[in-house]
Recover the amino acids of this structure.
């Protein structure tokens, strides 16, 4: 009797996880290049443990060496540029890469915005962005949002402060900056494919001059806040919130979003996935479905 109850509980958990992430992997894939690593507490959510395992980066590891042709899947799920992989970094790795090709970290559909031709959702907690057409998800991208001492892993705070001090000339002695990306409803105000920051600067490697930081495929959603590519900055996507408040994506993702999105497209930025439904219940008045909108 006890064994039957145990089997029933396992089956219920599997069904619940499948409803969140889609079809479960057929079987666990054991990689030959490295041993799996015991995940730290709370590293994987309760519904993720069936679908992912952890791998700890070792000396001389690269994503291509570890995962072969599947390296980009791991890069995108972990929101990390392969060039900034660090020894000791823990990666979330799919147990089944075929399943991972259809995986999305954000909802596949949002019925609340099916009356909108375009809609952009940004989850700061997960560090992901998704685009929707009439409520159906069309794509998702990894991001790096504004540096936040509460969200950014403690082990990487020193790197961010050091890099920011070099780029901006500022020194943080007494307190850490809070450069969080604002949350709430926004819209696409301006687009500039070759935008250059007038606030933050970098040192030109050839002339040693201070020049505006490139923000390719830029899309302004709030005064001084942009979604943009990383340009030649490999630390643009290090796997955690690290920007000055903007939302960074890989250049090819930023270009695709730039070409897809239109001016005035509604954007929702939330602290975590749990806030999505609550916020969508508070759609701005001009973005709500009209009383004569047909609801299918």
């Amino acid at each position: 009797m006890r064994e039957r109850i145990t089997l029933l509980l396992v089956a219920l958990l599997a069904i619940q996880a499948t409803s969140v992430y889609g079809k479960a992997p057929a079987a666990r894939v054991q990689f030959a290049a490295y041993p799996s690593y015991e995940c730290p507490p709370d590293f994987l959510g309760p519904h993720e443990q069936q679908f992912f395992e952890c791998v700890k980066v070792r000396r001389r590891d690269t994503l291509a060496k570890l995962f072969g042709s599947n390296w980009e899947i791991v890069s995108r799920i972990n929101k990390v540029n392969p060039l900034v992989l660090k020894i000791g970094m823990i990666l979330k790795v799919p147990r089944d890469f075929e399943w991972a090709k259809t995986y999305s970290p954000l909802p596949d559909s949002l019925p609340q915005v099916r009356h909108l031709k375009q809609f952009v959702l940004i989850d700061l907690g997960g560090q992901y962005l998704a685009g929707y057409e009439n409520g159906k998800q069309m794509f998702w991208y990894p991001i790096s949002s504004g540096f936040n001492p509460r969200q950014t892993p403690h082990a990487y705070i020193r790197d961010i402060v050091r890099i920011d001090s070099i780029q901006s000339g500022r020194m943080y002695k007494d307190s850490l900056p809070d450069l969080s990306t604002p949350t709430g409803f926004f819209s696409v105000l301006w687009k500039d494919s070759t935008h250059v920051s007038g606030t933050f600067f970098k040192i030109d490697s050839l002339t040693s001059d201070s020049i505006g930081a490139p923000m390719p495929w830029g899309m302004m959603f709030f005064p001084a806040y942009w979604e943009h590519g990383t340009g030649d900055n490999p630390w643009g996507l290090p796997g955690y919130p690290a920007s000055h408040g903007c939302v960074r994506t890989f250049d090819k993702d930023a270009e695709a979003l730039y070409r897809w999105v239109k001016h005035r497209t509604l954007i929702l930025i939330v602290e975590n996935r749990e806030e999505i439904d609550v916020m969508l219940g508070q759609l701005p008045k001009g973005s709500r479905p009209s009383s004569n909108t047909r609801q299918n």
Q: What stands out?
A: Residues 125 and 272 are 5 Å apart (CA to CA). The two ends are 45 Å apart (CA to CA). Residues 111-283 form a domain with the L,D-transpeptidase catalytic domain-like fold (CATH 2.40.440.10). Helices lie at 2-21, 63-67, 71-77, 97-100, 154-168, 251-260, 276-280.
